[in-house]
Amino acid sequence: MTQSVSPLSTNPWNVPNALSAVRLLMAIAVCACIETQSWTTALILFVVAASTDWIDGWWARKYQQVTKLGRILDPFVDKVIICGAMIALAAAKDSPMAPWMATLVVARELLVTSLRGMVEGQGGDFSAKQLGKWKMVLQCAAVIATLLYLKALPEVPDWLKALVPICIWGSILLTVLSAIEYILVIVRNKKSKTE
Known about the structure:
Elements (H helix, E strand, L loop, with lengths): L14 H21 L3 H13 L1 H10 L5 H24 L7 H23 L8 H23 L5 H37 L1
Helix pairs in contact: 1-2, 1-3, 1-4, 2-6, 4-5, 4-6, 5-7, 6-7
């Protein structure tokens, strides 16, 4: 069964794009709250911004408000939410999130975005893979666990001490594996075209 694609709307000023813009402002606010060590506010804002990711896409498809701006803005905001939070957390005092981890996540997102632009610019399909979706889930879990950890200092409960490295290292592992998966897709496509 083929999935229907919503026609592009000509009006960029609509509810989905407004929601994406609000999520972008929330992402910036999360980083500001982390910098000022307002852990609870940062946690609430991050959870709302990350968990409402599906709303703008659902609305755009349901009410045929898919726009070129929205197709760029939505994934851009997703990357700002994750990368921004991880960079801010890596800079926080006593954070279990290391700067190299945030750098790796940013590098992966830049690489995949570049590959997507190249493939789709040539008329190819570069849809999100299942591994990439799970990567996003674990990255969100890593940010939430790290915020809870910093909020709980200096008396971090044992369950949280155990959970934080699992979430962080799991997200790093899937970040690398999903990047490799996308690279292999490119290599296979190029190989099949030359055969």
